[in-house]
Amino acid sequence: MEHKSLSLDSIEFKFEDDKPGTFSGFASVFGGTDSYGDTILPGAYKKTIKKRDRPVVLRWNHWGPIIGKWTKMEETEQGLYVEGELTPGHSVAGDVYASMKHGAISGLSIGYRPIQTRELGDGKRELKEIELVEISIVETPADLNAQIGDVKSAIDQAESLKEVEACLRDAGGFSRTDATALVARIKSLVRGEREPEQSTAEIAGIFQQFKLP
Asked: What is the pTM of this model?
């Protein structure tokens, strides 16, 4: 599964004051090339919205708990419009909502599987059809240790090298090239059967080598 984030500052986003815990906005927009080199084309969400075996869940930071539900989801000319409702009485949901209204949280991020893509070269591609898995409210890791924790969580849950690379790009803002290189280094550490503490320290050194945030 791949992830793609969108800052709340860059989209139309609003809260319903008469309905505490509810909000609406765009989880994804069409056109342009994002930091991953991807361009999402109009029509990418039509099939996944209409035909589903299970609902698109609303999570905290992709790997966190389900903190609410999406009450509306539709594709417009601008992108993927959503309306959400955070679960009343849920401790995490309450904290997330307070942080959203305060502007302390960075945005929304979709968890998806690419169904139809077109490679454009130089690490760029067009996404013609997407299968939505979940949409998360996300924060930006504040320091290197937080990023390493996200990387370890991603590796634990990923089912393929491509998924690991996608999680690295989402969790740490890696480019495709850096994500591929880091995964290769991590694989070499695992094959060498290093002690966990030593491996974590070496991974931190790799972050610093790449001069990533």
From this structure: 0.64
Tell me which residues are annotated as active site: 62, 109, 134
**Would you state the structure tokens that stand for residue 172, as one six-digit string?**
């740490």
Task: Give the tens place of pLDDT for each residue, 59-118.
Answer: 998 888 999 999 999 999 989 999 999 999 999 999 998 988 888 886 888 888 999 999
How far CA 173 is from CA of 20, 186, 207, in Å, comes to 32, 17, 11
Measured CA to CA, the distance from residue 104 to residue 111 in angstroms comes to 21
Residue with tokens 């709340």: 8
Residues 99 and 27 in one domain: yes
* Residue among 129, 22, 8, 27 at smallest CA distance from 74: 27
- From the list 134, 112, 131, 147, the residue with the least C-alpha distance to 62 is 134
Look up the domain containing 188 and give its range: 141-213
